[in-house]
Amino acid sequence: MPEAIEGYVEKGLVKNVADLYDLTTKEILTLDDFAKKSAVQLYNAIHKTKAPHLARFLYALGIKHVGRRMARILAQEYGSLRSLEEAGKKDLQEIPEIGPEIAQSVVSFFDQEENRKVLEHLAKAGVKPQEISSTKRSRALKGKTFVFSGKLKNYTRQEAKTAVEDRGGRATSSVSKETDYLIVGEDPGSKLAEAKRHKVKILKEKGFSGLLKGEA
Questions:
Q1: What domains does the chain contain, in order, with CATH numbers?
Q2: pLDDT digits 0-9 by tens, 8-30
């Protein structure tokens, strides 16, 4: 799909992310290597993204200094695109992870007329990021650092990391004295020994699930 989009950019059919939702199957077929069936599949795939998770939407906007982790933090703090658009630099800097450079970048993005037009275009195309209710915007793990080792039964590694980040925590790949929790699954590796050496709290999957639910 990324290669196909590059082709439409070269043809002038797509100038920004909002233009993707204006593509017709006929226009998709203008690329030589697209069969009709593939064109319909791409068209459907594009239109299935009209209700993205707010964090994914913010990341996709390409705001300078806002990567995946920062997009999640902003989504959790503000809960909706409208609330973030209305945030000032001072408000943003009250979030511990956000300094003046990131705050200015976010404010500048929403202040630029070109970006506002893209957002309006997306809204008219029916794209509406999912809002996060106040009950789901938990910061229960704020300031806590997690490392995972071994295979978990009920979570993929990415799902586990996202669960931590959605609650204000941080997931890293290596154990250090700054690590608060090591979550171990089946066949944990050398990280287990490192955690014991640094006296890091070690939880199995059940304990991790309880922590996410506020039971630990």
A1: 2-47 (no CATH), 54-124 (1.10.150.20), 145-212 (3.40.50.10190)
A2: 667 676 788 888 899 888 888 87
Percent of the chain with pLDDT strictly greater than 70 = 90
- Residue tagged 């941080």 (tokens): 170
Q: How does pLDDT run across 120-165, given as a tens digit for each residue?
A: 999 999 999 998 876 556 678 888 999 999 999 999 999 999 888 8
